[in-house]
Amino acid sequence: MNRSKFNAADETLQSDDRADFAVGEASGDVKHELKLNIGGRGATHRRLHDCQVTMIGFCGGIGTGLFIGTGSAYAKAGPAGLFVAYIIVGSVLWCMMQSIAELATLFPTAGSFPHWATRFIDPAVGFSLAISYGYCFMIAIASETFAAALIVSYWSDITPAVVITVSLTPLLSINLMSVHFYSDSEVLGGTVKVVCFLGLIFVSIVITARDRIGFRYWNDPGAWTNYNDIMGPKGHFLGLLSAFFNASFSFIGIETVVITTGEAMNPHYAIPKAARYITYRIGFFYVLGALLISITVDPRNSDLVSGAGNAHSSPFVIAIKAAGISALPSIVNACIFVSAWSAGNSYCRIGSRMILAMTTDHQLPQVFGKVNRKGVPYVAVITAWLFGLLAYLSLGKGGASQSLGTVAGIIAWATLCFFYISFHAGPKAQGVSCESLPWKSPFQPFTAWYGFIGASTIFFITGSMFSSREIGPYRPLWLHTLFASASDMDLWSGRLEGGEIEELTAPDLRRCMWKRVLDHVV
């Protein structure tokens, strides 16, 4: 199917559908309005600068999983187990990110993940992905908000309901403002995370040098932990497998930078740049973090599995306390609180954009896609934020919502890689040159295949107990939908063309100071 056929199809869009998606008074661009709901187009405005997208990609979504959740994984798997688990899961995530970043650069639309799955696999798969992925993050708003309440309990016995209320109110306010304001809040929160982690690196080096710890815990009790007292290689292997879940929970959310593509001022530049920084994010925060934990904390320390949910169970704080440093634990706890709140803020936005994405393919009533004059999908934002009220039920404490959310995220990773594999066959079948792509990710399609097989394996290891609840694979049977054919695949709708490219590829003069530093370093 050629481009002219898609242009003709664009003209068949019903006028009542266009009317349902008012761009807003601030835009007034008739040409843009006519493209809404075509190729995943939404009514949001492009207000995100390159530096904001880069910062969201580098440290957006980092919450309690990194600063607290690594403790239980370390206790179960030991120094080598934690380190290997983060490398394996990180490599899968890297491959997935390169694949979807290429699609985001080619089709920078508001529909993002669900639209691509609908377009390159099957509408039922797109619908299932939107439901499961949206659930993963909307329920995480409640989990991170309740986690913030637990973090505050490190200092005070104040009732968690007060902290939850104080945390949820600004989440709604910020997400209802311009996306530019939201991104500034993420840059501020991300800066706190980076500065905190840099401080933890410095402190870890000081602790190791002062007490001459070195790699003591790699020798005693050993590089591997006996999982549930199962001795020998079997116990070591089970410990490694158990760490996959915690590692996946820590990593989930990195891929969400791609969701900014529909609101980025220059997606052809910003998204590949963000994909490049993912490599440094994985190495800096996770692999280096696992190494620091393994040389400063004894995996037999009972506080690692205390379930306190605050700095008391953070491996970094445990190491600081063991070194006799009294002031730093409260400072680190404050940084963890900022990370938890920032993650909840990010998850609210992601959940709302998943709702918006479903409207671009008419999988939800069009009212959920309405935007205000600043291009904010306010109905979708309020709908996603309402899930945060579940924090009052203390769902984050029990762990069930976290487990289901993590499994849903892993399923999404596999699906994202699979629809790239499906897309990759399209240009070859239609005789379209890959030179037309704005950016090509490395080693394709082997990268996507590695990500798909790896994510599927991690799912069966960590989440097979939940697989019977997933109804996605059966939807095509009763919806009577068909899988996309490579020869008939839509390779054109949603691309930026002509004047849009010239306008969006103009140099972005707003360069943050930290962005200039990162550009020189990496």
Set down the secondary structure blueprint.
Elements: H1 3-10, H2 15-20, H3 30-34, H4 50-59, H5 64-106, H6 112-120, H7 123-152, H8 160-176, H9 179-211, H10 216-222, H11 232-251, H12 267-296, H13 315-322, H14 328-360, H15 378-386, H16 395-398, H17 400-430, H18 446-462, H19 475-479, H20 499-504, H21 513-521
Helix pairs in contact: 4-9, 4-12, 5-11, 5-12, 5-17, 5-18, 6-7, 6-14, 6-17, 7-8, 7-14, 7-17, 8-14, 8-15, 9-12, 9-14, 13-14, 14-15, 17-18
What report would you give on this structure?
- The chain has 522 residues and is mostly helical.
- The protein has a single domain, classed as Amino acid/polyamine transporter I (Up-down Bundle), CATH 1.20.1740.10.
- The protein contains 21 helices and no strands.
- Helix content is 65%, strand content 0%.
User: What are the segments in which pLDDT stays under 50 over at least 5 consecutive residues?
Assistant: 1-34, 395-400, 464-474, 476-480, 505-510
Number of domains in the coordinates?
1
CATH topology annotation: Amino acid/polyamine transporter I
Per the principal axes of the C-alpha atoms, what is the gross shape? globular
* Radius of gyration based on Cα positions: 23 Å
Query: Briefly, what CATH class?
Result: Mainly Alpha
CATH architecture: Up-down Bundle
Largest sheet: none
What is the helical fraction, as a range of percent? 55-70%
CATH superfamily (homologous) name: Amino acid/polyamine transporter I
Order of helices and strands: HHHHHHHHHHHHHHHHHHHHH
Number of strands: 0
Our count of helices gives 21
Mean pLDDT comes to 78
Specify the structural class.
mainly alpha
